[in-house]
Amino acid sequence: MVITSSRHSRFEATSPIFLQPIQSNNANMYFHELVHLIQRRLLGPGRFLFSYANGLACFGYQQSPLQVMAYDAETAFASSTASFNVEKSVAQKLNS
Ligand SMILES: [Zn+2]
After folding, report:
1. Is 73 inside any structural domain?
2. Fewest Cβ atoms nearer than 10 Å: which of 11, 38, 83, 86?
3. How far is the CA of 59 from the centre of ligand 1 (A)?
4. Which residues contact 48 (CB under 8 A, 6 or more apart)?
5. pLDDT in tens, 3-58
6. What is the Å distance from ligand 1's center to 33 Cα?
7. Which pLDDT value is given to residue 20?
8. Which residue range is the domain that position 46 belongs to?
9. From the CA of 8, how far away is ligand 1's center (Å)?
10. How far does residue 23's CA lie from ligand 1's centre (Å)?
11. Residues facing residue 12 across a β-bridge
12. Per the domain annotation, does 4 fall within a domain?
């Protein structure tokens, strides 16, 4: 999968995304998973896995910081046709 995530860069996802067949046509779900791929690329695999697991252990699935970030971006994607730079948004949130 190759996704253009900003004007000047291409994001090549080499990690598989596993979705249930009922979700295979759900663009919002792909966008949610794209956010996790960007998180993984920006943090690096080790920090991403640690942060993801730590967030689940400390806050549970729904309140895990990386999940909240992905759901917030998914909601923004689903609720507007305005374009936004999700890679930049994720980078800003990871650094705040
Ligand atoms: Zn998620």
Report:
1. yes
2. 83
3. 14
4. 39, 40, 66
5. 444 444 455 556 777 777 887 788 899 999 999 999 999 999 999 999 999 999 99
6. 6
7. 79
8. 27-79
9. 26
10. 14
11. 2
12. no
Side-chain half-sphere CA neighbours of 74 within 13 A: 17
Q: How many domains does one find in the chain? A: 1
- Can you say how many angstroms the Cα of residue 18 is from the centroid of all Cα atoms in its chain? 14
Distance 71 CA to ligand 1 centre (A): 7
Give this prediction's pTM: 0.80
Tell me how far the alpha carbon of residue 24 lies from the centroid of ligand 1, in angstroms. Answer: 15
SS3 63: coil
Would 13 be classed as within a structural domain?
no
At position 18, the amino acid (one-letter code) is F
pLDDT given for residue 14 in this prediction: 65
For residue 81, which of 2, 35, 33, 27 has the smallest C-alpha distance? 27
